[in-house]
Amino acid sequence: MGKLLTKLLIGIVQTIVTLTLTLSLAYCLMRGGPVDWVLATKTGADAHDWLLDSISWYGCESSEDALITLAIFSMLPPSIWICLSLSRYLKRVIVRGK
Fold first, then answer.
1. What is the Cα–Cα distance from 70 to 82, expressed in whole angstroms?
2. Could you tell me the residue range of the domain that residue 80 belongs to?
3. Which of 22, 41, 53, 88 could form a disulfide with 79 if both were Cys (CB 3.0 to 4.6 A apart)?
4. What global pTM score does this model have?
C-alpha cells in the first residue's frame, strides 16, 4: 500500500509541476515573445488581420483566445520534457544518496 500511495503522490506532484510550468512558459510567450509583437505593432496587426481574413475567421475575442490556446499548447511538450527530466534526475540523486 505504501508504494502505491507514493507513486500516486509522485504522479500528482508531476502533474501540478507540469501544469504550472506550462502556464508560466505560456505567459512568458504571450508577454515577451512573438505574440506580444503581433498584438502590439502595426505590422503584426496587419499580418494578423490578413491571416484572419484569409481563413474567414472574424472577431477579435476569438482570435485572441486562439493565440492564448496556441501559446498554452505549444508550451505543454517542453513542460512535460522538463518535468520528466527533473524527476529522473531527482530519482537518481535520491537513490545515490541512500
1. 19
2. 29-97
3. 22
4. 0.68
